[in-house]
Amino acid sequence: MTATIDEILPWGRSYDEYMAMFALTPADLAKSIVGCGDGPAAFNAGMRAHGRRSISVDPIYAFTAAQIRDRISVATPMIVANTRQHMDAYRWDTIPSIEALVEMRQAAMARFLEDYDQGIAEGRYLAGVLPSLPLPDASCDLALCSHLLFTYSEKLSAADHVAFIREIARVAAEARVFPLLDMNGAASPHLGAVLDALPDLGLRGEVREVSYEFQRGGNRMLQIARS
Ligand SMILES: C[S@@+](CC[C@H](N)C(=O)[O-])C[C@H]1O[C@@H](n2cnc3c(N)ncnc32)[C@H](O)[C@@H]1O
């Protein structure tokens, strides 16, 4: 989907948001975790700060920290303007204002950038583009995918979603996908097709409510496991 850094709008969530979006428990954190489409999120850096190791795969890891930082500077006002136009699509209780949102996202992305060069050297940030992950079969316990599948429902077809999930399931025994809404806050038109396709892939899916909700109605994740 993404070929050059100019096509990416980097916008990363925090470690605490990942914990809530995916209902992660201490037992989950002990698993080998891969984040698919982690971008400039701070989950991987947070895992490292807690003495754990996870792997993130994203096309932006083909670029340098300086390139990603520059792109964040360009993308932030664009994302803020778009959010301002769609204020009603979000809940402004936990995150009370656009200013607080920007501060939170910038703190998360700064944490990512601080960790990035070391993470690249340690093989924790791998450049890769779904539907192909640069990881061996069954090499992870748990895959997390935040704000890529379903969020990009306009760009990615139902068949793309199924192909991405097949590849994620090749690598990880379990996958969690959040949210189930598209970018405009509408229910993704692809969820039904994905749920229908899972049995043929030898997978079963369960939609679970989680404690995180920033997009209005965006408090559900899809949990997928081998059947
Ligand atoms: C909206 S951002 C979400 C970042 C992070 N997961 C979070 O929630 O903060 C979407 C991410 O998906 C990545 N991405 C886009 N197409 C991808 C693909 N085909 N395979 C893997 N990652 C992709 C983008 O580079 C971007 O970092």
Task: Describe the protein in words.
- The chain is of the alpha/beta class.
- It has a single domain, classed as Vaccinia Virus protein VP39 (Rossmann fold, 3-Layer(aba) Sandwich).
- It has seven helices and seven strands; from the N terminus they run H-H-E-H-E-H-H-E-E-H-E-H-E-E.
- It has helices at 15-21, 26-29, 43-49, 65-85, 98-121, 158-171, 191-197; strands at 33-36, 55-58, 125-127, 140-146, 172-178, 203-209, 220-226.
- Strands 3-2-1-4-5-7-6 form a seven-stranded mixed beta sheet.
- The two termini are 30 Å apart.
- The model has no long low-confidence stretch (mean pLDDT 96).
- The chain binds S-adenosylmethionine (SAM).
- S-adenosylmethionine (SAM) binds next to loops.
Calculate the terminal CA-CA distance, rounded to whole Å. Answer: 30 Å
Structural class by sheet pairing and helices: alpha/beta
Cα shape: globular
CATH class: Alpha Beta
Task: State the strand order across the main sheet.
Answer: 3-2-1-4-5-7-6
Question: What topology does this entry show?
Answer:
Layout: H1 15-21, H2 26-29, E1 33-36, H3 43-49, E2 55-58, H4 65-85, H5 98-121, E3 125-127, E4 140-146, H6 158-171, E5 172-178, H7 191-197, E6 203-209, E7 220-226
Parallel strand pairs: 1-2, 1-4, 2-3, 4-5
Antiparallel strand pairs: 5-7, 6-7
The structure holds S-adenosylmethionine.
S-adenosylmethionine binds next to loops.
